[in-house]
Amino acid sequence: MNKKRVLIIYTGGTIGMMHEHRKKSLVPVDLRLLMKEIPELKAINCAIRYVSLSRPIDSSNVQPDFWIKLSVLIESNYSKYDGFVILHGTDTMAYTASALSFMLENLSKPVILTGSQLPLRAIRTDAKRNLITSVQLAAGRQVIPEVCIYFSNQLFRGNRAEKYTSSKFDAFESYNYPLLAEAGVHIRYNNDFILVKPNGKLKVHRKLDTNIALIKLYPGIHPAAMESVIRTKGLRAVIIETFGSGNAPTGDKFLDTLRDAVSRGISIFNVSQCSGGAVEQGKYETSIKLKEMGVVSGGDITTESAISKLMFLYGQGHSDKEVRKLFGKNLRGELTE
Known about the structure:
The chain has 9 helices and 18 strands. It has helices at about 30-35, 65-75, 95-105, 125-140, 225-230, 250-265, 285-290, 305-315, 320-325, and strands at about 5-10, 15-20, 25-30, 45-50, 85, 105, 110-115, 145-150, 155, 160-165, 170-175, 180-185, 185-190, 205, 210-215, 235-240, 265-270, 295. Helix 2 (about 65-75) crosses helix 3 and helix 8 packs antiparallel against helix 9 (about 320-325). The model has no long low-confidence stretch (mean pLDDT about 95).
């Protein structure tokens, strides 16, 4: 009766894929077959239950309504379980982890996303180790009250992580924030960097506004290409992925395109293309003009977190002015103020 209770949620991804000989490709399998492949889970001192989405998907097909389904599923089971493990494809795992971190306000239980680079039945698969340790973390004495990603012996804050390679087992990195835990012979927790357990009741936010766009800068980017994005009907905000510490071209056509967007009420947010470091508008001459026209610095936030944060903020009905202010605020440990 004193065992921790963990709910494993299977959404799809490589971890649950098997080869379909007719199609000669990987396809998702039934969750019950998946669990039979890992008898070691029975040795963990916790009660495990499983639930699968009615239609498992490749994570490349993830959309915001998928995040809403996940958050509602966690909400409906929140009182029954002590922790949650979400099996998810790696391609968009950082987006889902970031989105859930904002949508699950006052989260006081671990929600851990994991997956694998190789299918469960593949030789040298990383699937078993990732899943077994994720369950141990979700059921551990050390409560981690946040959305995390566990991969290849490392536990990351979900909204600080990003997938940086498609070919190595250690597929994720968190360049601007330390690991929350590391699993070797023992699991070592980095307690100073784990969020404090909140006092309030879980509040699940179910509305997201997708009227935002992302523009990655590159040498020679055409103002007309930018303008075609910025003039998208209903667009409320644009994230520009800039060079280095937030730098951008200083040409008149480029800056005029941004000024026109700002004049029409579109908010512009500055996020660095670099995985490590932060945007520092005004540090170099090439970012002073952005700061002067009201472009908002994203600090050391990841692109994945910036996108989901804006969807969340606009989804809550905040005005443009409020969103610009809240974007620079640390809401769920996603950035350094």
